[in-house]
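Would you kindly consider the sequence and fold I have copied below?
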Amino acid sequence: MIWEQTPLIIILSTVAVVSALLAYAAWRRPGATLTDTFIGLMLAVTWWAAAYLVQLAESNMPAEFFWAQVKWFGLVAIAGHRFIKTGRSGIIPLAGDTLVENMNDAVFILDLTSNLVSINPAAERIIGLSEEDALGRSGEDIFVQKTRLSPGWCREVMIHTEVVLGEGEEQGHYDFRLSPLYDHRGRLTGRLLLLRDITQTVRGEEALHRKVEELTILNAVAVAGSEVGNKLDLIKRTAEVLFRTRFSGKIDLLLFGEPGDNIPDTPPRETPHIVEQDRRRRPSHGLRIPINVGDVMIGMIQAENSKKETLADSDVRFLTILAGQLATGIEKIRLFDAERRHRQEADTLRQAAAAMTSDLDLKQVLDNILIQLEHVVPNDSSCLVMLQGDILQTVAARGLGAENESILRDRPMNEDTLFREIRRSGQPVILPATQCDQRLQNWQPGHPVCCWMGVPLMVRSEVIGCLTMYSQQVAAYGQPEADLASAFAGHAAVALENARLFGEVKRLAVTDELMGISNRRRLFELGEREFSRTQRSGRPISVIMLDLDHFKRVNDTLGHAVGDQVLRAVSGRCLKNVRSVDIVGRYGGEEIVIVLPETEISQAGQTAERLRQIIANEPVETNAGPVNITASFGVTVNSPEVTALSGLIDRADANMYLAKNAGRNCVKGYE
């Protein structure tokens, strides 16, 4: 009996030992769990218990006790196994698996060879593979293809970075975390990869960054609009700001050229830059946003991406706002420039007017007009032409030499097409290119001229002359210069009129209004000056006095109006037939005195005789018909006993009465 039971004990003991060894091996296996080890140990204990019960049976224990012990040990083993399976390995892993399965974050489990051993549904959606297709594949290869991670990233112990998955609108940003997995003994058994979707956060940050960037650009443009002095500098500052933003290399600022704008050559293409653009041309590609001031397009923003990517709607809206900001800045600069220019022009005109009216001498005024004209409207040469009756006279010139005879000579107005046009319109006439214009033949100077402008001089709506300007620059004069020159011409006409009136007043103050010769005051003023000079030099000075014969009869028979005509005719003949240095003045009534400096008595007598014959031999044409008139002359020369001009005049007066007494129409005092 015993020997019959002993092999069974040996077999059960052997199975128990093998179960214990398997439990130990399970515990030593990498990645083994406590549950698997515990189950192995429970089986080993069960087999040992079975061997023990067999041994008890060999000791003649009742059979019922033996099978009761076997039953209880079996029930304990089964209960322990079920407890471990349900309590330790069922409930907790089931709850953990459910939690992982329902996570929004993607979870990947990788073994030590970087192969996927488990993924959740969120991970399936991200990599586009089912769990069956993904398990066993290399996680390193999958993420190197889908992200910018470098090969070998799985060999890192821990990684925390941001990765981008997908393309176009489906592109997403993820927080990438790689963490190691250790067993209960601290040995590395694999890696846990967690991907958390942060796309909305990143896009929100990018939108906030773009908004801050756009506000920074708009603020910089607004500040530049207040600081810079011209629209070209504003465009440059804007280009510099754009170059430091996401728009670098995508934007061209096209500024339409205006007369006087100095638009530079195109800078390198890699920066936002300014391109001179003809109004008749338009860019043939790219997004074009006009820069409008009112209803006038003054420029354009051309957006072009070198990668041929379409600009977002937010970029288009921003560039539209930028175009409005630039238009506001440019308009502000234009208004400021216009106000500053008008202020400068007004100040220049004020100074020019003050300079032109500072002197009432006509010759000096004429010279001042051309000098000040050069300050107001720059020119290479100029001239001032006055209309005297039907004749054009060049009364002042600047920058024109003697070779410009066609301009400097007097010429009939009817021969000058340009002046007739100026006189007819009362407006400036501009010839922007003079090379082929035949109208300039009377105004062509000796030096090369590319542009000409004539501006009328007007007094009481009547054209009295014109100012002409020459420039060697083509299209140097336009409407702004014409308006400025017209305003200047108004001041110049006032200065000329003032000088003319002053000359007239001055002439009337020293001229006899009836006879048109020096009055008595002027006669003595000039005569005393010459008499004093001859007294110092010892040179001779002679005096002639004449009086019309029977002049009272003319007044009584023909009237005082005819008498006045006779007096003016006689005084005119005297002025015309003496030297320019001789002084002719009315002494009183119809008596005329002529002072002849540096003249001996014989020469004075000859002059008096010539005048007597001219008066007697040429009847005076009057409203009453020809009037014959004669005059009596008295002549004298200075001597030591005469100390004043009045003494000489008295002696000439005495000799004139001798001529009266001698029968009139004769000369006395020089025989």
